[in-house]
């Protein structure tokens, strides 16, 4: 026979254990970590080649300041144009494919610098790489928001921007060591290999959430707009620094191509 307590439990079952409804940070963490690493590689690779690229183009390829400015400008304009026109492609075709495509396009610049000396080819490579950067930034930012609860999105974007800044700082520091161990071509190949590694990691590690978190706001677009303006300022500063360096070293600064 059932005891009185057992009989009571049949009619009054014990309540289920309490479940926590506390929103979680970015999930899954593997995707979050992969996105951070991909952003770091992209920022680091460009900052890594930037100082060496100035000397290589001026001293070994004998480019003029105008040629250098046109190449740098084509990269910046392609990035701004791409973010304006192609920024929402990831909403249609998915975050992962657009990120992988953008990384592959970005690697074109490193390949051109490493294996070609033609001004026209490097110019085309810079423009294609700018479009690649324009594809990566909005798709990655949207991916961060897809996997993050709304109240944590500001923190996640802050972490992302910190990682990008870290890559931009470590690149010029480590190239000081690399120039003693390899040639300019080796530096471009190393940076390009890192970028392609990022594409491989994106291909195998990025997985879109089954159901993206709702209420995606305009935070990603605001950040991308600010990054675009910052990129333009950085590229302009690169041209001015290269011109000043060329003048200090006594090289002529022709105004014509």
Helix and strand arrangement:
Blueprint: H1 4-11, H2 29-60, H3 65-86, H4 89-93, H5 95-115, H6 119-146, H7 153-178, H8 184-205, H9 219-248
Helix pairs in contact: 2-7, 2-8, 3-6, 3-9, 5-6, 5-8, 6-9
Helical content stands at over 70%
Distance between the termini: 101 Å
Mean pLDDT: 79
Task: Classify the fold: give the CATH topology.
Answer: Growth Hormone, Chain: A
- Which sequence of SSEs, written as H and E, runs from N to C? HHHHHHHHH
- The CATH fourth-level homologous superfamily: MFS general substrate transporter like domains
In the CATH hierarchy, the architecture is Up-down Bundle
Largest sheet: none
Number of domains: 1
The CATH class designation is: Mainly Alpha
């Amino acid at each position: 026979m059932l005891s009185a307590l057992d009989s009571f439990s049949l009619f009054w079952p014990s309540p289920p254990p309490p479940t926590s409804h506390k929103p979680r940070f970015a999930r899954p963490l593997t995707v979050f970590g992969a996105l951070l690493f991909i952003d770091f590689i992209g920022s680091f690779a460009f900052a890594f080649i930037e100082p060496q690229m100035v000397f290589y183009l001026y001293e070994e390829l004998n480019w003029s300041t105008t040629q250098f400015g046109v190449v740098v400008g084509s990269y910046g304009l392609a990035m701004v144009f791409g973010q304006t026109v192609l920024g929402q492609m990831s909403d249609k075709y998915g975050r992962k494919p657009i990120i992988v495509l953008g990384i592959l396009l970005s690697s074109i610049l490193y390949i051109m610098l490493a294996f070609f000396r033609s001004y026209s080819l490097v110019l085309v490579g810079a423009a294609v790489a700018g479009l690649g950067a324009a594809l990566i930034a909005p798709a990655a930012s949207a991916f961060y928001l897809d996997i993050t609860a709304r109240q944590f999105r500001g923190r996640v974007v802050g972490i992302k921007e910190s990682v990008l800044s870290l890559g931009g700082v470590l690149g010029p520091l480590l190239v000081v060591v690399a120039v003693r161990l390899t040639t300019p071509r080796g530096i471009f190949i190393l940076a390009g290999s890192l970028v392609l590694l990022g594409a491989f990691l994106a291909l195998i590690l990025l997985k879109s959430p089954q159901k993206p978190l709702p209420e995606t706001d305009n935070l990603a677009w605001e950040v991308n707009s600010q990054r675009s303006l910052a990129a333009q300022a950085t590229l302009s500063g690169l041209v001015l620094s290269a011109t000043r360096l060329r003048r200090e070293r006594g090289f002529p600064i022709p105004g014509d191509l």
